[in-house]
Amino acid sequence: MAIEINGAASQATPRPGQCLRTFLREQGNFGVKKGCDGGDCGACTVHVDGTPVHSCIYPAVRAEGKAVTTIEGLATADGLHPVQEQFLEAQGFQCGFCTAGMMMTAATFDDEQRANLPRNLKGNLCRCTGYRSIADAVCGHGPDAHDAGADVSGAQSPAAVEPQRGQLGDNVPAPAGPAVVTGTARYALDVPADQLPGLLHLKLVRSPHPHARIVSINKAPALAVPGVVAVFTHEDAPQQLFSTAQHEHYTDDPDDTRVLDNVVRFIGQRVAAVVAESVGAAEAGARALEVEYELLDAVFTPQEAIFPGAPVIHGDKDAVVTRIARPLDNVVAEVHAELGSVEKGFAAADFVHEHTYRTQRVQHVAMETHSAIAWVDEDGRLMVRSSSQVPFLVKRTLIRLFDLPEDSVRVVAGRVGGGFGGKQEVLTEDLVALAALALKRPVQLEFTRAEQFMATTTRHPFTIKLKAGANRDGYLTALQLDVITNTGAYGNHAPGVMFHGCGESLAVYKCLNKKVDAQAVYTNTVPAGAFRGYGLSQMIFAIESAIDELAVGIGMDPLEFRLKNMVRPGDHMLSTTPEPEEDVHYGSYGLDQCVSLVRDALDRGKERYRAAGLDDLGPEWVTGEGAALSMIDTVPPRGHFAHTRVSLEAGGRFAVDVGTAEFGNGTTTVHAQLAATALGTSADAIQVRQSDTDLVEHDTGAFGSAGTVVAGKATLAAALELATRIQTVAASLTGAPLADCRLVDGAVECGDRSVPMKEIYDAARLQGVRLATDGNWGGTPRSVAFNVHGFRVAVNTGTGELRILQSVQAADAGVVVNPRQCRGQIEGGIAQALGATLYEEVKVDDSGHVTTDILRQYHIPSFADVPRSEVYFAKTNDSTGPLGAKSMSESPFNPVAPALANAIRNATGVRFGELPIARDKIYLALRDRTLVPN
Asked: pTM for the full model?
């Protein structure tokens, strides 16, 4: 019997053992997503005879004779389904990869189910939003439902001037919204089969050993598998050393990696690539490949790795050529610095706090796994479609690896299903390029969720031995940190994470005596890489915990202690060098406002609980409050470049071409609003085209929170120049003075005459005037952004249960381009940080195996785990950002862990210095009563 899909009988028959997800995608239903293939995330949810099912674990054969509805079939001829309209209205998405599955589940809810979303949405995960906007969407609350009262959900302070529709300060909907809610937004692998005839699939053979030399590889058994086309090993791959990390300057990272190596350094490292006509054949070929290894000694902790006589992981590398600090000592990078004299600072202290803080490996868990497709087009160009934050840097890396001409490679990123730094790497593109160049057929590689955990990257684990001193007057006298970071088997991002971590976390405080000794160390474990916060969250956890301990030690309110010691405009921001970064300035300053906003919100929250009679939870419960602050440079150092082009189109609309990728960071909306503001129009008159290396000259990429303050600055410059050209043409048509020509929506008003944009376009063509302008920005000068987070918590002293009673974050984002979108970024950062604080951990056993390699073993926050946070914005106007805006993507993550640890400390008297602060740890600490006196 045929399977009915969205009202039409399918002519295809499922293969034996095929799941419904892959069957539906093969029929062109690309709204059905793969997030786990284990029934854990819900991204693949469809209806079978009206019942929502996870299609990744639903056998396709069971759907024969039944009606299957995907997101593409949810709407009717009369219009969108109500839940689609609600998700559009409330903007219940960011990257949008999980959204189709979320809507398919919610579309079946009755009122009783909507009243209990923590239970009924437990099978659908979102990594971006923090779930507040999803709750508003599912329940049918409008876009301003969360603005009902600041005490309830944290509205932004009212703007001084009402924003113009579609311009700066307006809650412009995401341009991709209609495509996201209908399942037509195209991610990396959403390419119809007829566009890639002869598509092959690549699967990887990965190392079962933490450290070994490959003695031999026998390809014959793999090539004998029906459907296998080719096998690639280190003998077939470029020998060029490179780093998978992607930065504007590739020399920022050590060249310690090969596409395929004859030495493997962690369990899960790629050994060989098997290419076949189907995924199943490629997997069978990978299982059949015969590899002989010579086992080598391995080391799994950085403390052991720097011990004399430890196994050397990259001893074959030349330190100068590869930019590894001390390869024979397993040290990738290091910094040793002292400002003033910490010895004298501690001698002057009335209270000294010493503790060792530890942060764990955390996985990005972007819902879309790493994936790429490569092919050679009819002109001989290498074409790559990738789920990447950095398409231009991917292009540069491929050119370098394969020694290709500059114009012979094109990289396109479709809509990207989440990134968080994890897609600032080349982990798939080099392999599909290798195969496509050799075979001259399209080749696709899609990682499984298990591969994401065991073979991509994680957050760098930090061990921080901290010593800090303060005097009775409430001033810091000394800060000393001994830091070891675990970069895993390869040094991608190791120097940058270490240096950045030791930067703004220290620079935010005035202290004459600071000392840092830090080392990034190789181990035979899964590599670490870029992760939201880029080293700051780890260091801020330690420093902000210590700040609270110092305040308690001298008997001062922790927020007052911070106010006394945090930098103010005019203060040097110093960390490891005696002079501040010459291009980092206080473009605006709102840290003091953020502290006040959080403190006042916590006070109001306490009063609300008291007035409602909710402050007494019983004798086993203790309550407490805690806060933490953070500072971040708005742009990465040493240049971050963007080129954009803005043009007037024939129909009177505008086009903005940008290089930066969209993965839920909201840059598409921001670029449209910035251009609309400069051009006197609305964002819905702007078409943004992006993430294609053929569109513009260069864009460093969407990382380091640079989408608004770098690429946005380039867009604004181009739009302003275009506005002047349009005014000049209008003045020539009307005879009016240039100063009297004003751009309005769809026209130029010149005195009492209005000239439509279409007429401007036609006149410019006749005059030979090009109504397309270019903007460039190089990422300097830079400003600083601030975040302060506060919690009220309750802890059950008998069970270790933790309840978050109130969560508040205040942010200094400058002039907020899109308040709803920026609030969503903050809420998403809070949710991800709560996971990293309370339960997320990539666990590696004593032999180097990742043991948490599926989502049900690695707990990311679900709907029920995330409190509804209050979000407030400081009122500032940044002198360096576009129209006064600052960055606000990664920084909301940074103060959450220490704020929660400080609240637990305030409630229980116990200082938790190791993440995650899981419930069993709380229980055991309270059971043993290892209390710190208040």
From this structure: 0.96
